[in-house]
Amino acid sequence: QVQLVESGGGLVQAGGSARLSCGASGRTFSNYYMGWFRQAPGKERMFVAAISRSGGSTGYADSVKGRFAISRDNAKNTVYLEMNSLKPEDTAVYYCAAVRPKTIYSSLSDRPESYDYWGQGTQVTVSS
């Protein structure tokens, strides 16, 4: 089991920045691909970003590309999501997720069903 706890959400003005953190415990963090997803009220959970075990490979949703950056610190068992130029449409509950890739060649996934472990989420509200 992997336990994930997000932090860093809150109320941010449009154009501002925020940094989310997700701390992991329970298993060897560096064995897992990590992802960030978000879910707005009444909408499906959507992919935001993902990162490989070493951090050498990342992927982003088109809607956040160039504004958000995912990173990880394996020594601290933490994955981050740096969010810049925030827009009201970025308002959502943000979740981090983890999956242990089946092989070293496994690709990063943007599908929620690919991930095995989830945090409880942290609310990000962007005011206009």
Structural descriptors:
mainly beta; 128 residues
General description of the model:
This protein is mainly β and 128 residues long. It is built from no helices and eleven strands. The strands form two sheets. Strands 2, 4, 5, 6, 9, 10 and 11 form a seven-stranded mixed sheet that branches. A four-stranded antiparallel sheet has the order 1-3-8-7, with no helix packed on it. Strand 5 and strand 6 form a beta hairpin. The protein starts with a strand and ends with a strand. The mean pLDDT is 96.
Summarize the model shown.
With 128 residues, this protein is mainly β. 0% of the residues lie in helices and 48% in strands. It is built from no helices and 11 strands.
- Total helical elements: 0
Shape: globular
Number of strands: 11
Which structural category do the helix and sheet elements fall into? mainly beta
> What does the average pLDDT come to?
96
Q: Cα-atom Rg, whole angstroms?
A: 14 Å
Strand content: over 45%
Any low-confidence stretches, pLDDT <50, length ≥5?
Answer: none
H-E string = EEEEEEEEEEE
- Termini distance? 39 Å
Largest beta-sheet details? 7 strands, mixed
User: Which quaternary structure do these chains form?
Assistant: single chain
Helix content: under 10%
List the helices and strands and how they pair.
Elements: E1 3-7, E2 10-13, E3 18-25, E4 33-39, E5 46-51, E6 58-60, E7 68-73, E8 78-83, E9 92-99, E10 117-118, E11 122-127
Parallel strand pairs: 2-11
Antiparallel strand pairs: 1-3, 3-8, 4-5, 4-9, 5-6, 7-8, 9-10, 9-11
